[in-house]
Amino acid sequence: MPIRFVAMTKALRGTPPLGVQAITPCEVKSMKAPELPKNALWLNTDRPLSLDMLNGHVVLLDFWTYCCINCLHVLPDLAYLERKYRKEPFLVIGVHAAKFDNEQDPENIRQAIIRHDIEHPVVIDNGHDIWNNYLVRAWPTFVLIGADGRLLARGSGEGLRDELDRHIAQALDQAKRRGILAKEKIQIRRPPLPDSTLSFPGKLTIHPETGHLFVSDSRHHRILELKPAGDRAEVRRIIGRGEAGDRDGSFSEAAFRFPQGLEAVGNKLYVCDTDNHKIREIDLTEQTVRTLAGNGKQAMWPAAEGIGSSISLNSPWDLAAFGNRLYIAMAGSHQLWKLDPDTRRAEVFAGSGRENLIDGPPRIANCAQPSGIDILGTKLVFADSETSSLRTCHAETGEVTTLIGRGLFDFGHRDGPFRTALLQHPLGVSASGNTVYIADTYNHAIRRADLSARSISTVIARPKKSLCRIGDKDCDLLPLNEPNDVLLHEEKLYIADTNNHLIRVFDLQTEELKTLELI
């Protein structure tokens, strides 16, 4: 049977987040799985792979792209299956089919693999050839291939771990009974992991009284408290034991899992413990950590409201304090939430939960993976990453308005009037007066949005040069690499230069960009 080619679409457009779906048997089980391209580039493996080479193995293809929160949500499920069947001839292969231009760069994909602790090999599918051959229409999609190289089952969305587990067990059992299962599992070696003081720093906040800078050192699963002095910063305290986990207690006992957003209020530091799906409260005086909201389980759609540990959250990515409330960019449910730190009640503030770019009242508005948030007068300003947009939400009414952005597949790097400007998957914002600074992550840039003039300009950008010459100043400075956050403080921009594993400082008066040296 010939393979029918299909155009790439986004199944999530205008629909609820992909929740629990069924794994369905392939319509034609006798169909041979299409071979992977011979000239494809592979990552996280010591050699290229092919289905022919994996004869006798049960193979699970995971079609993903590293911007997609749904794709990140299924990684723990894949890790569980890899651990469970580690001694069996079973292999997960990630097929990275990029959405954004920036996601086509192999080095950026490599960094995402390291950041998210992906252990299986990944093949790059920039042209979506594998995507089309396997008739894929949404991220994430799974295709199960039997030990005889034939298609067995497929499914899309989150919450499929148990279904996948059942189908994998059946496939292994049937292959064993037929005598076609490989006697030994193929051995694949991963490249060594890099080491650095910071590992993929995510978000920043400054304590308004002490001036101390807090950094979510996300892949080290901890928070650092820094005392900046010029181009240097003393590490005053480390919050968290530095290993992935979920535990309250003292600074040395507490455990986080890929923490992101931070907000300092008085003697409290609030943290988006993103992969634990929790909001944590750090008492800077007592030096303790406790869970403010979330039970550690990811909420499925529609998310239910509740109090404290009775509630499930969905990948909180950033937060900001306004009055006596915390407002949360809930990336996983495509909404803004609010939380009362005193009563610990958390509830939806704006966003229907459908992934799209639609303005309006809180229950009508659609958001798409909000990932950065700050306060702008009586409004919240947030980076809606999957629509590459800058948006506001009235802090009282919940009315959502788009300043920059057009839709899920409209992105680029263009300065000028808001109506024609383009961003590419921004993750961080910092607002002051009529100005919003944006960490335009996939453009490797810091942008400045002037709300009075309704115009945007580029403050820092990566030079588009492939050749350096002696005396070329553009080549003297390390360019930004997927900055996840920006923070304005005393005429300086502090930048989480995530893929460079650094904190950078840009002086707005001298226009000098420097690296903050940690002592």
UniProtKB/TrEMBL annotation:
This is Thiol-disulfide isomerase/thioredoxin. It holds the Pfam family NHL. Residues 9-173 form the Thioredoxin domain. Keywords: Isomerase, Repeat. It comes from the Bacteria. One of its GO terms (molecular function) is isomerase activity. The lineage of its organism: Bacteria, Bacillati, Bacillota, Bacilli, Bacillales. PANTHER family: NHL REPEAT-CONTAINING PROTEIN 2. InterPro entries: 6-blade_b-propeller_TolB-like (IPR011042), NHL_repeat (IPR001258), Thioredoxin-like_fold (IPR012336), Thioredoxin-like_sf (IPR036249), Thioredoxin_domain (IPR013766). The keyword Cell inner membrane does not apply. It comes from Planifilum fimeticola.
